[in-house]
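pasting for ref. prot 1 ->
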Amino acid sequence: MKQGILLIGLVTLTMALPLRELSTLNNSEKRAIEMQDADKTIKLFLCGDVMTGRGIDQILPHPGDPQIFESYMTDARGYVSLAENENGRINYPVNYSYIWGDALQKFDRIKPHLKIINLETSITTNDSYWPGKGIQYRMHPKNIKCLSILENLFCSLANNHTLDWGYKGLAQTINSLDKAEIEYAGVGMNLKAANQPAIIEVEGKGRMVVLSYGMPSSGISSSWAAQKDRPGVNVLKDLSTTGIREIKTLVESIKQPGDIVVLSLHWGGNWGYEIHADEREFVHNLIDSAHIDVFHGHSSHHFKAIEVYHNKLILYGCGDFLNDYEGIGGKEHYRGDLALMYFASVDPKTGNLLQLEITPMKIKNFKANAVSPSDLRWVKDRLNRECRRYNSSVTEQNNRLLLKWINNKS
């Protein structure tokens, strides 16, 4: 794993005062605080699953072999046809920036210091898929430019698609990311490498330490777990105190004063809003005991609740950000086509959340698109429904949402 130096900027409003105090200020006073404190924050972009393989790979400049071995489809181009039947023609091959669509304007406006995604695809030309794996995502290595065009990118790889095309596919994925100088964590050619966090220097502010884990509950086979002498995924077996102690030991061996620690975890099923008591307790214990500052949860195909606990941001489930699911029926009431861009402003001295801005996008034609006013309201209402039990809510401002919260302490 490499270490990179990232030159930065991000998020609009900077919250230097508690919400109740800030709400008493007029707009000019708020803006003065924002300008004064803008250089004191680390600005993160976080999102859920980014699936650039299969159908999306086929519309990029260098599509790989379209053959796949799924019961639903045997040719990845079939997913392109489904999407076009649903939402209209895609004039491909597209350029490398195409898939990010209107999200690029948001990045230009906010300028995140670090962009954290869960990359759910193997980057390989290997033709041997993992035996018994029912769904296979792969992107041609030459299409990695669709990722490298994003500055300051980190890819969490501990998920249930990284090994879709076997150990050769994993090795080529790692090699491709290394050549592109893209930061990553969560897989490796042995357990030590898979367990190694990414350490990213943010010039003038400090370091980001990003850990990547995947759990069996997300569909990761036990046979994928990295071993001392075997490649694989950095698997967290369960939510026990043993796992928390292991994470704590790792963090304490690496974390320096002023570091911000992000734990990215692929966990849980694809559908459903419920957050179980043991899941919430586990995340709280990570913050209390293992010194985690930001929890980045993913696997659900739709967004889930947000909590702020001891001033630390918890994203229980970020939802998909890019996929090739257009035209596939079922579960429409979850609105998996609505993707969220999470922009977090974090205090570099404490790791505390200062502000969370959320920009909804719509997945259409295999790219991220600005949402309609009605879709924005739908996201707002659903987030408020799910976040209420965690003492948080969102308000609408200029076609985006801002999180309001009461800091949970127990």
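and prot 2 ->
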Amino acid sequence: MSKTVIRGGSLFDPSTMKIRPNDALVIDDGRIVDSGDPAGANVEIDASGQYLLPGFIDAHVHFRLATLNFPRLSQWTEVEFGIAMAKLSEQTLARGFTTVRDLGGDITGLRGAIKSGAINGPDTVQAHLMISQTGGHGDVASGVLPVPDCACQMRHSAFGVVADGADAVRKAARHNLRAGADFLKIHVSGGVATPMDPLECTQYTTAEIQAAVQEATNRKTYVSAHAYTPEAIQLAVTNGVKCIEHGNLLDETTAQIMVEHDAYLVPTLTTYKAMAKEGRRLGFPERNLLKNDAVLAAGVTSLKIADKAGVKMGWGTDLIGETQAMQRQEFAIRAEVLTAEAILHSMYVMNPIILNKVDQIGRLDPGLQGDVVITPVNPLEDIAALANDNAVTQVLQRGQPVNAP
């Protein structure tokens, strides 16, 4: 049994969007306790003059995409992947992100290493392999490939499974769920990071989407969809998709349809600025940089539209490889158009719902995990400052301190 006591500081409560004084926050055996005796602590931290926030939550990461240099990525061995993913995982936790949602790629070994204590890393909810059509956003191959010579119409990689037709999508969904996927991720529009799919194209048919949704529903979970355009977003949510990733080209009509279908949106704005800033230096292909430019300018506008319509928004980043160091920049970008309360609501209220962890994370309440970020920044007064390099003083995961950057 281990006990950690954080004395002093001011505690942020996402339930009320208020900050209150804190005498002693007690974390006993990884859980916050109501009136635990602060005596006999294994760890004591003085947070006087600082603020206590629940651990940060990122609802869109990709540990498998461990470098922005895609040609090099395609040549890595599993050992190289493992080393790179472990490094990204530890850095993510050190930045304050104690829980994340991985949107595609085989991270089975990474999660096992974190669980066993071999490495440090955030608690991770996973989609396992992305599901995409041939030539879709999740199809990482380029050039001419032979048509699959089996009836299943499927191709696999460490990142995703290419599945054509409702039966193939159904099989891909079942394989993912058997492998431990917590939810399913499909692609219904073009994307920035893959070679063969124009941004404006719509991917998957009604029958294919419904097959994935039915399999997820049968397992008491949901489908999330990569989508940029109004056409793709509408196709997804009207056929049962619960969560839209990105949504940069969202319009007012589509936002209203999302509200009517009680669908969530996870914008990921910092990734486009990161790719524009660092992509060429890190070897990101020119054709992909051009697609990135097309969605970069529209991203902030989509936030305004979604917020005005009342779309339920989560908080994510979608950063790739080396650019994951810019994870907290999402706070500053959203602060250009949203209030601090709206941004904090996205992270601490909506993200736990999207991750199906409402009773575990997102608040510093008794019974929840002792995941804490200690910061000199008052999040209600200057939330953009959480993006600064010195914004995090200390990170605790289940009451245990981890190294902050």
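The chain has twelve helices and 21 strands.
The chain has a mean pLDDT of 91.
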